[in-house]
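Researcher: I'm preparing a figure for a lab meeting and need a structural model of a single chain. I don't have an experimental structure, so a prediction will have to do for now. The sequence is pasted below. Please return the structure as tokens so I can convert it later.
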Amino acid sequence: MNILFLRTNSIYFQIFLLLFFFSYSCVSLKIELPEDPDEIIDYIAVLRSIDENIDFSKPVKDENVSIKDKNIFSLVKVLNISNTGSLKWFWYDPGKKLVKSSSPSMINKDGKYLEYFIAWDEIGKDLFFKKKGKWSVVIKLNGKFLGKKDFIIK
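Model: Understood. Here is the structure written out token by token.
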């Protein structure tokens, strides 16, 4: 009788263990909605001029710039914009000295999702005509670093 009792208890115990493990092994994971997409730079280009015939769907290539140019432009294409924001450029000379910071440019005022947007800033000849060398332009969105482009003025 004791042997039968042990077998019966053993079977009940095994069933209990199986049910216990299976009931706690099936954990449902909380599904979270993805956050708004992060802004991604498609490209930053340094140009001598902005041409209205530029095909922005393809990456715009840098142009060689020199101290003889009238202006120098920094063009940026940013992907996945879903919020309003403030875009600002910071231009640094070869000595890493801040030469110009642009006025903030408001983007996506309606706060709707944009697949991409194009924006640019320029620096006038009066700020670079005597300074050949490696320059940098830093772009910030809402005060946070978005991208940087180094370029040479010959």
